[in-house]
Amino acid sequence: MRAITQRTFGGPEVLVLGSAPVPEPLPTEIRVRVAAAGVNPVDWKTRAGSGMAKVFGEPPFTVGWDVAGTVDAVGVGVTRFAVGDTVFGMPWFPRQAAAYAEFVTAPSRHFAHRPAGLGEVAAAALPLAGLTAWQSLVDIAAVQPGQRVLIHAAAGGVGHLAVQIAKSRGAYVIGTASSGKHDLLHDLGVDEAVDYRREAFERVVDPVDVVYDLIGGEVAVRSLDVLHPDGLMVCLPSAAAADALAAARERGLRATGMMVEPDGDGLEELARLVDQRNLRVVVAETFPLERASHAHRAGELGRTTGKLVLTV
């Protein structure tokens, strides 16, 4: 099968198209013929030697976790899927899933049925970002109707999904993004959009129950100024949140980092929101598999609205 691999850490140019054996599913696993693979910041960070590089070890390896495709084979004990089912998932995270390839094998419970209203490209863009938002806002923050939720980088890959998940929970949502992205934010349901380039959000945002910070650093620390005393701040990426977590402890406020986990139940909840037309995935650009390096270059510019996807 075709697969993107790398033999050293480095820039996007280390990603090359090669070949690898087609994997065989073990008991409880399925094999998915990949139609599309999502591209996430953790992919290019891992490629460069940070991200999940410590989990992977030294190259060669294949990055990527988000997949959408068709079940091609099932292992002994699989009852949730049959050959021919269309699925999407985020298998194995943070271990290597090797999603930038034509076939992937993983436990069946790392996947869910792809909803009818979600095409393969959008389905490939949803799992990692969607589960990150779902687990943060629902499992950790337990967002409730009427709560005020501030989401930083609200037009990004995780942020634009977090906005819709929070709205589906009945929250009042405030999102930060550059002014050019405010129309999209309002279309997604944001109640207040703040242009972080023109005004300090902590001066214009009234206290909130939940801060979902997807930037880290000083933005996370400043967010404590608008967090209700009984509120919670969830910070991503966790590696950039250490100062904010320490500052929260000093002020007697609650803050936590998080790391997403494979979650078939969570995927089914996301699929339900899609079916109810309460969740849509914004895909900024697609690239063929062999142009994975170009996708990484685009992502590393930090200007993407929504998600990037490889078509296989």
From TrEMBL:
CDD domains: MDR_like_2
Domain of life, per lineage: Bacteria
GO function term, MF aspect, one: zinc ion binding
Domain (Enoyl reductase (ER)) ranges: 10-310
Keywords (A to Z) from UniProt: Oxidoreductase
Pfam family, one: ADH_zinc_N_2
UniProt xrefs under SUPFAM superfamilies: GroES-like, NAD(P)-binding Rossmann-fold domains
Classification via Gene3D superfamilies: Medium-chain alcohol dehydrogenases, catalytic domain, NAD(P)-binding Rossmann-like Domain
PANTHER family named in the record: ALCOHOL DEHYDROGENASE RELATED, RETICULON-4-INTERACTING PROTEIN 1, MITOCHONDRIAL
Protein name according to UniProt: NADP-dependent oxidoreductase
Organism field: Pseudonocardia petroleophila
Organism ancestry: Bacteria, Bacillati, Actinomycetota, Actinomycetes, Pseudonocardiales
